[in-house]
Structure formats: C-alpha cells, structure tokens
C-alpha cells in the first residue's frame, strides 16, 4: 500500500464485520474482458460493502450482484502489504484467487453446476488508498480446460460513506 490507514474526523467506525476499524464503503467495479485480439466487453457494478483494516492489510467485503452472474456470492478482497491481492468468494460460486504480478495460480471454482479448475496468470497489480478510500487494479489472464485465455482488467475503487 502506498499510504497508511489514517482515521479521520467523520465519527465512529461502523462495526458490521466486528473489526474495530471497519467502515461502510461504496465500491465501484469495472471489469473488462477479451479473447486475444477481440475488442473488450465491459461491465460496471456499483455496490455497498465494508472496508476493514486487519493485521495491517485492507480487507473489502461485498455481496455480488445478479449482474455479475455470480448469484448469491460474498466476495472478500484482501490487499496485502506486498502489493498482492487475494480474492475469496463464498456462496453459489466459491473460489480463491491469488494475484501476484508474474505468478501463475491454479484454483477451483465451485458452482451450483459443478467444479471447474482454472489457471490465472497475473501481469499487473496496483493499489492506493487515502483518507477517502482507495483503488485496486488487477490485470490477469484466465484459462480453463485447454480453452483460449480470457484476458481481464479489474478496476475496483472504494470510497468511505
């Protein structure tokens, strides 16, 4: 992270997650996906969530929307101090994804229709935060069962409410 967590004068923290430093946030997720030279498709989702500081790391938690195609799934993003990001999904679509620039991660996604093994190769991760919120950017390629890699860019911003 570029800057340390700093409390501000907006009053007491929201304590929905049980962590003393949790606060409600408005999260905007812009996802772009494309295959090889195809033009990217884009989805934008705005949702409410919670941001907490746990063991010196920023943790964002939110409920996925039906627009994302993930149904009843809770997503937790952990922004690690080493500039890597972990994404844990629990519910209808359960999986864990670890994003480290230059690293490949193998994961399994469990859905109501069965399980799928996927490979992720992360090319870039960046994150910043300040007294108003922060932003995370992740660029990765995902492949499954010998299919062409699906390239993805996620731009996730959050602001305290």
Description:
The protein has a single domain, classed as Beta Barrel (Lipocalin), CATH 2.40.128.20. It has 161 residues and is mostly beta strands. Strands 6-5-4-3-2-1-10-9-8-7 form a ten-stranded antiparallel sheet, with no helix packed on it. Helices cover 0% and strands 62% of the residues. The protein has strands at residues 23-35, 41-54, 57-63, 73-79, 85-91, 95-99, 104-111, 114-130, 133-143, 150-160. The chain has no helices and ten strands.
Give the tags.
mainly beta; Lipocalin; ten-stranded antiparallel beta sheet; 0% helix
Number of strands: 10
- Helix/sheet category: mainly beta
Outline the biggest β-sheet: 10 strands, antiparallel
Q: Can you list the strand order of the major beta sheet?
A: 6-5-4-3-2-1-10-9-8-7
Brief summary:
This protein is an all-beta fold.
List the helices and strands and how they pair.
Elements: E1 23-35, E2 41-54, E3 57-63, E4 73-79, E5 85-91, E6 95-99, E7 104-111, E8 114-130, E9 133-143, E10 150-160
Antiparallel strand pairs: 1-2, 1-10, 2-3, 3-4, 4-5, 5-6, 7-8, 8-9, 9-10
């Amino acid at each position: 992270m570029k800057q340390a967590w700093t409390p501000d004068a907006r009053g007491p923290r929201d304590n929905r997650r049980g962590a003393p430093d949790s606060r409600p946030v408005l999260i905007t997720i812009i996802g772009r996906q494309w295959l090889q030279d195809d033009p990217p498709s884009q989805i934008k989702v705005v949702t409410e969530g919670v941001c907490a500081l746990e063991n010196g790391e920023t943790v964002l938690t939110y409920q996925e929307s039906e627009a994302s195609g993930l149904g009843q799934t809770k997503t937790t993003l952990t922004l690690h101090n080493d500039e890597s990001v972990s994404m844990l999904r629990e519910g209808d679509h359960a999986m864990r994804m670890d994003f480290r620039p230059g690293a490949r991660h193998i994961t399994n996604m469990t859905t109501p229709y069965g399980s799928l093994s996927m490979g992720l190769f992360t090319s870039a991760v960046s994150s910043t935060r300040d007294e108003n919120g922060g932003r995370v950017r992740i660029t990765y390629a995902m492949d499954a069962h010998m299919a062409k890699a699906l390239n993805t860019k996620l731009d996730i911003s959050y602001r305290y409410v």
